[in-house]
Amino acid sequence: RTTMKSLRFISAEAFVSNAELARKSLGAVAHDLFPLLFKASYLLEQVEVIHDLVENWPLFDFNMGKLLGATVDYQEDLSHRTCSVCLESCLTGLRDYVLNQSAPHMKKLRVVDLTGIKDVEVQFCKCKKTMGRWARTQLLSKLCSELLVYLQQAQCNPGTFEISINVLIDLFVTERNYELVVQALLKKCSCPLKICCVAFRSDNLTLQKFFYIIKLTDPSLLRKLEIVHNVHLEMEHLEMLFNSIHFPLLMSLTLPARTFNVRRFTAADEQMLANIGEKMGEMTQLSELSMSFSILTGRIQKLLSPLKTPLKMLDVSNCSLNHADMAFLANSFHANHLEALDLSGHDIPELYPSTFFKLLRHCSSVLRSLTLEDCNIQDTHVNMLILGLSPCQKLQEFKFIGNPLSSQALKHLFTFLCELPMLKNVEFPVPRDCYPIGITYPIDDASLCKFDHQKYERVAEELNLILLQANREDVKASTPLFGSYDAAVQETNNELGAYLIKSFKETLEKFTASFNKMS
């Protein structure tokens, strides 16, 4: 697919393609052409020109999402190109903007917004090297620290210290880049480049370090908080967090697995849960909540009823919800606003079929993403599922991996899915008839790949043919056996793996020591 370019954009490409000439001529370029030249340079990966454009940026703000997004001159959205060489040139150009010897009063830049960059699985840039969220956090923190050291050592123009640029960024902190980010945040006041954390994700971090760094980020600005892998946050720590820190602008909250476990609740725990609900109720902007792999049986109402803003996204996958929980969700004011819903890991047809379909009916006019993985949806349930999904005309994504459906049932379902006009992405299970007879669901990891791969390929081709014959080439259908692509996990999987091995080793050592004592 070719995107049309305006004559202005073609001229901009021609101008920046000769890097040496372009760099010499920047002083004579009209200020309002800088955004056009920046996008053209980014598309062509002209890293030296990118650097010099940023170093001499003449405008008040520099918004990556807007600069690389669809424009009148070139409709193609480049904000998902996290090209390593281009992004490094942007950030070093920003550092050199501060150090540039031009008169301080000429420097108008006040806000740099890096939050519009989108991390995706497939990269189209020529270098094929990406700079993910973790690496962007690392590089910006490093440049801020180096800039401060340089300014303190060198004889700089006194006006340089008056430069103050807010750099909006989504920080991603793990054990490996923690010290560097802490140093940059601690010195924020004296550094011309001021890190403003809009979204914060932490993985592989001790609670002590997490509590320390979250206070440094200025939580009053935070819109998204993700506490994900290997941060051992339990309910009492969450209550402590909400009691000690206010998040007035928080819109999205992701909690780690096993934050809640109602099976071992005491009366004090019930009160603690109610307190957490009340604190979340004070977050008047909160509209996205993810609490997967917690045990919340019978407590959804206590946790969600204090919320004053309707949720647009709710992930309660593998949370052991009962009928009362589902009834609360179906009848709550959230139901009419849910754009993304994940109920994976619940036996929906067995436990609460009618209540689930009531929930689906209430959110059908706005629902964009539905995930029902490992929900024991069988061939006999497909007609009912089609009936439930029929009103969901805005559905863009449907994931139902891990359900015991036959090839025939999948074909029937795909024929219906072609009728959903907005649908773009479908994740479907390996058909049950591709596995050996007698396979039990949910399938354990050891058996997951033990299916007839040739038969699966044939079925997948037939399913894609159904899409093709209905002129739905725009729908991507796949079977990611080990879960959907996660840019953050992909970027830090080595650190994550090392952490898991270390945890396993420590557990094994404790077990051996206990066993030896018993012996």
From TrEMBL:
GO terms for cellular component: cytoplasm. The keyword Ribosomal protein does not apply. Keywords: Leucine-rich repeat, Repeat. Belongs to the PRAME family. LRRC14 subfamily. PANTHER family: LEUCINE-RICH REPEAT-CONTAINING PROTEIN 14B (PTHR14224:SF27), SIMILAR TO PREFERENTIALLY EXPRESSED ANTIGEN IN MELANOMA-LIKE 3 (PTHR14224). This is Leucine-rich repeat-containing protein 14B.
